[in-house]
Design goal:
The complex is a heterodimer.
Chain A: H1 2-27, H2 44-50, H3 53-86, H4 92-104, H5 107-121, H6 127-150, H7 155-163, H8 168-197, H9 200-205, H10 212-222, H11 226-252
Helix pairs in contact in A: 1-11, 2-11, 3-6, 3-8, 3-10, 4-6, 6-8, 7-8, 8-11
Chain B: H1 2-33, E1 37-39, E2 42-44, H2 50-57, H3 59-92, H4 98-106, H5 113-124, H6 129-137, H7 151-175, H8 179-187, H9 192-221, H10 224-229, H11 237-245, H12 251-278, H13 280-283
Antiparallel strand pairs in B: 1-2
Helix pairs in contact in B: 2-12, 3-7, 3-9, 7-9, 11-12
Classes of the chains: A mainly alpha, B mainly alpha.
């Protein structure tokens, strides 16, 4: 029974990693054809992917968008997480429900709502619009990550500081902020990753700006090649590194308890 | 406490403003436009229920909305069955590497929609990995044509995309489940089936509902997967909305479909909550009874 369970769980994990493995495998295959049998080992596709100036431009665009988006989502997420974990106020449930609305609404509906509202108000498409739209989508994730750290913090530290005469602002800057720092870092990394991989809403409000995700989408439809495998493998590796780093940082925050 | 008010103004305030400006207001504008109509290439602010009448009387839109809701429910059910043992295993059989296992489950999520779909096309395509592999090993003579661009392919990839959310929801419930309950039930003579049906299922119902809600909403909203994996079967209500905002310029009708879909989604969720809430099994899920 136990062995059956173990095997089953291993199979589910294999299923989850199968696509990632296949993409990585073909990125090293020397043939232009994406099919078995494999023909030989090469790093050539990585060379091609890295030296593609169009993709490099898209990559830089993605970074220009991801940095402010991650900062905004993390700041708002921290505010929401602080309110939800530190106070039981009137309208708490409503606030929590509103916070997950952007997660539950189909992204295309958010996208077309943005397009209509922007047209009505004359807001131009482009980088600021992408940042605003992505910040909203990522906000529920940031709030969750930071709340998961705040829940574990020892509230007595904050109470002790208040008892010793610290003002609300002092409690925040001297006690809460240092203790939740790791949660903020984790949220920033995860928001960064989510921003660079977001495609749907971005494509509706991007105007003429082309971040990497949109370029990959069009290459994927019209110019399929192992170069995309190499690119995807690079993206996945970078994401795994960022997420793993943020997870390490977040778990270290647990040490603050007790 | 006076500081309480300042604290709330400083924390809840900006978040509420962001939610209202970036989410609720655009949805409000979408609702208003859904009552307008299109004349040639301009939107005429002449409020009527015309678009909603068109959505509700059109067999194809009704079908597409029903298909989206059904697909959400089906994928939620499939992921629940697959995820249940996984969540149990992570919560109850793992101590040291629990966080690592959960993170490992989430990492494929961070690869982005397109990379994942791209990978599945490599696997399921006519000259794809699965077919080439099967031919190479001699298991089949000619490629299986129907792997990609079929409803089955869409189902596989949707399950793949949203399984981690279901595992997360269920895992939270299993994590709070007290092991002593099992021992007590077993001591009192309950068999494996009784423990599963009368103890484990009701107590993990909150996680099941949370996971199912997430998967349902995400599947209904997913249109890249059916479009790029499902082929001819990939027309969804979501792609219909996208078309009306793209080539077929009719924002008001598109808005009306979007709002009908939102109301239908809320309706399904509310119905599930009400029906489940009446059974003893489900009342555990909503903290009543």
């Amino acid at each position: 029974m136990e062995r059956l369970l173990r095997t089953y769980v291993a199979l589910v994990y294999a299923f989850m990693y199968l696509p990632v493995a296949v993409v990585a495998l073909f990125s090293f295959n020397s043939s232009e054809m994406l099919a078995f049998p494999m023909t030989g080992f090469t790093l050539g596709w990585y060379d091609v992917a890295i030296h593609d100036s169009r993709l490099l431009g898209g990559f830089l665009n993605a970074l220009t968008i991801a940095a402010p988006t991650a900062a905004i989502a993390t700041t708002l997420g921290a505010m929401a997480a602080l309110a939800l974990t530190r106070r039981r106020f009137r309208g708490w449930t409503l606030f929590a429900a509103l916070l997950i609305v952007p997660f539950f609404i189909p992204k295309i509906i958010l996208a077309v709502a943005d397009v209509i509202a922007m047209a009505a108000l004359g807001v131009p498409h482009g980088v600021p619009a992408i940042i605003a739209a992505q910040s909203l989508i990522i906000l529920p994730f940031s709030a969750m990550v930071i709340a998961s750290v705040l829940i574990r913090l020892d509230r007595r530290l904050e109470e002790a500081a208040a008892d010793l005469g610290a003002s609300g602002w002092q409690v925040f800057t001297r006690v809460q902020l240092p203790l939740m720092r790791n949660g903020l870092i984790a949220s920033f990394f995860i928001a960064f990753v989510l921003s660079t991989s977001e495609y749907l809403v971005t494509s509706f409000v991007s105007g003429r700006t082309q971040p990497l995700a949109i370029m990959i989408a069009s290459d994927f439809r019209f110019r399929l090649s192992p170069k995309l495998d190499a690119l995807a493998t690079l993206i996945v590796s970078a994401n795994v590194l960022l997420v793993a780093a943020s997870e390490l940082v977040r778990r270290r925050a647990k040490g603050a308890v007790g | 406490m006076d500081g309480g008010r300042t604290f709330l103004a400083a924390t809840v305030g900006p978040v509420l403003v962001a939610l209202i400006v970036l989410c609720l207001a655009p949805l409000g504008v979408l609702l208003v436009v859904s009552f307008f109509r299109v004349d040639f290439v301009s939107i005429v602010p002449d409020p009527s229920l015309h678009n909603y009448a068109q959505v509700l009387s059109s067999g194809s839109y009704r079908y597409l909305i029903a298909k989206a809701l059904m697909s959400g429910a089906t994928i939620a059910a499939i992921t629940a069955v697959i995820a249940y043992p996984v969540a149990f295993f992570i919560a109850k059989r793992i101590r040291e590497v629990k966080a690592a296992l959960l993170t490992a489950l989430l990492i494929p999520l961070y690869t982005g929609d397109l990379v994942r779909i791209f990978a599945w096309r490599l696997i399921l395509g006519r000259e794809g990995v699965l077919n080439s592999f099967l031919i190479w090993t001699g298991a089949i003579d000619r490629p299986i044509e129907t792997l990609l661009f079929s409803p089955t392919a869409t189902t596989i990839v949707l399950v793949y995309n949203y399984l981690p959310f279901m595992v997360l929801g269920l895992w939270l419930s299993f994590e709070t489940l007290d092991d002593h309950l099992f021992e007590a039930a077993a001591d009192l003579g309950a068999g494996r089936t009784t423990i599963l049906l009368r103890l484990v299922l009701p107590l993990t119902a909150p996680g099941l509902v949370a996971g199912a809600l997430m998967v349902f909403a995400l599947v209904v909203g997913d249109f890249i997967t059916p479009q790029l994996i499902g082929g001819a079967s990939g027309v969804t209500v979501i792609s219909a909305i996208a078309d009306l905002f793209g080539a077929a310029f009719d924002w008001p009708l598109g808005s009306a479909i979007a709002w009908t879909l939102l109301v239908a989604m809320v309706g399904v969720v509310a119905a599930v909550v009400v029906i489940l809430g009446r059974t003893p099994w489900g009342s555990a899920a909503f903290g009543r009874g």
